[in-house]
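Input record (one chain):
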Amino acid sequence: QTAFYGWKEFSKAKKGETVFVTSGGGAVGSMVIQLAKLEGLKVIATAGSDEKVDFMKSIGADVAFNYKTTDTAEVLAKEGPIDMNAEWLQVKLLLISKSRRCHNLTKRTGYANGFKPINNLFSVITKAISMNGVNVPILAPKYFMEFFTTVPALVASGELKYSEEVTDGLESVGDVLLGLQKGENKAKSVVKVADN
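The corresponding structure, as predicted from the sequence alone:
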C-alpha cells in the first residue's frame, strides 16, 4: 500500500519520463518499478545485491544495477536525466535534475544511516525540487478502496509480481526485523506464527 498510495498521490508521472528507484529489490521499491512501467516510464533501479538486480530486471526495470559495485552517478549521467526519484534521500538530492519530484516512500532513510542529518538538503531549494513523504494512514482514506479494486486484479493477471520471504515462528521476529533494516531481505518479509 505504501508504494501505491505514494505513487497515486505524488508521482504526477507522465509517459516517457525517467524514474530512479533506490531499494528497488524490496517490497516498496519493486512495486514502484512496476507501477512506473505500467504508466510507460523508463525505470532506473538500484539495490545492494546482484540477486536483487536480477529480480528488478525480471519485473521490468530498464536499467538495474548494484550500487555497491557500480558508480551510481555514472549510471545516472548515462541513463538520465532523472525526472522522479523514489527512496534514498541523500542520493536523490545530489543526482536529481532541476524542477523535479522526489518521494521518500519508507522510513528506511533514517534507519539505514542511524538518523544522521541530511548533508545536501539545500539542493531542494537550488534545484527547485518538490519533495513529499508518504504517510500511509493519512493517505489510506483516499486510496484504500482503489488499492483493493486495482492491485489484486493486477497480481492475478500477472501484470504485478511480488515475492515473499516467509520465516517460521514468532521467536524469529527480531531477526527478521533486523534483516529488513540491514537490507538483507530479498522479498516482502512475512513471519508465519501458526499453520491455522
